[in-house]
Amino acid sequence: MLRTETMQISVIYAIAGKQPWISLDVEEGCVLEDAVEQSGLLAKYPEIDLNRMRVGIFGKLAKPDSELKDGDRVEIYRPITRSLDDDDDDDDD
Length: 93
Fold this sequence. Notes:
Elements: E1 6-14, E2 21-27, H1 32-39, H2 41-44, E3 55-57, E4 60-62, E5 73-77
Parallel strand pairs: 1-5
Antiparallel strand pairs: 1-2, 3-4, 3-5
């Protein structure tokens, strides 16, 4: 019987007010997108869209097909929004 090697990684979703952090064991050769799916975060947070949201590994942008290494932390970044003041222009007055 072939034994598949596993590695431990974590997946975190950076949302306002909380950062769900999931630790899981995945098979060697697992890519970032598969780890996000296995984490269960896509079911819990349906707004996650890996086709339009940025993702990374330890603070460095990565592609969904990036292969993971043991101990990696996958990060799903929420879009950055900017609030304008009441007059809706870019100046500070």
